[in-house]
Known about the structure:
By secondary structure, the chain is α/β, with parallel strands linked by helices. It is 39% helix and 17% strand. The protein is built from 11 helices and 11 strands. The strands form 3 sheets. The chain has a 5-stranded mixed beta sheet with strand order 3-2-1-4-5, with helices on both faces. Strand 4, helix 4 and strand 5 form a beta-alpha-beta unit.
Amino acid sequence: MRVGILTGGGDCPGLNAVIRAVVRRGIDGHGHAIVGFRDGWRGPLERDCEKLTIESTRGILPRGGTILRSSRTNPLGREGGADRVRENMAALELDGLIAVGGEDTLGAASKLYEAGLPVLGVPKTIDNDLGGTDVTFGFDTAVHVATEAIDRLHTTAESHNRILIVEVMGRHAGWIALHSGIAGGADVILIPERPFDIDEVCRLLRRRHERGRFFSIVVVAEGAVPLAGTMETVAGEPDEFGHERLGGVGQRLEREVASRTGFEARATVLGHVQRGGTPTAYDRVLATRLGLAAIDAADAGRWGTMPALRSTRIELVPLAEAVRELRLVPDEDYAEAEAFFG
Length: 342
Ligand code: F6P
């Protein structure tokens, strides 16, 4: 068998562990040939690929990023995209393709499968918002990075009697903000699922200061939005999947909080630091298990599926189920964090 693999969307610590597991089990365990496509869906669209071997994938387990590189190319947004992928797979004599990605990359994979292409998916995103699986790899690393940053910001916030606002990633879901905020002891956490009331944010901060504290930490997900009409918002440029480029809510909060409360405020945007660098041990193990399950599924012809973490086991779920709806933060999880606000 000949199997292709691509990594699409925002990169994520653990992608190389998936590639390594697919190659190792694919070649040693099943006797397959593995072809790596470059730059996400651009690779199959333009037949840009390389043969992956056990030797060429040695030493990549602890490496962040992806040796295949990534892009936000949408194959279905291109003229004749599905046919080009089909023709290029046929020209390369591929029996199937493993797409490693988040909602957009796997959304495209699911549609290509429905159009008759032998494709299966592997879930990845630091945002942890993909359906069908309990957790995605990359999330644990991002939470570790953000928590360490919050710990560091605590001491400087305290020294200067300041409110420090930490903007973390999370477009539709506030998992990174919630978990790093709880782990870092944040005084307010704002997430996309719950449009925030700026008056309430300021009330909580004032109350904390009235109770004898002189500094506060606010963790805000980049996708958090104020209640309609309560604060200025700015729209960014859309990408090929129609997602607007985010960033800036931290700075706007800095201005609002400072002017409404009179406390000195500063914003820190963590940005891509959360996605870069070596994956945690948890993410390496999860990514490895998913890679092994993906190549086993390919070997068994289980196209249209996705290996997913369900409790502690890896199970195959339909790809369509995984991309049907995002996994958002439930109210009860947010309530656990709220107990520590203000
Ligand atoms: O892949 C998820 C993510 O990291 C989001 O949290 C964030 O909104 C987005 O990617 C940023 O994308 P880019 O690196 O393309 O600006």
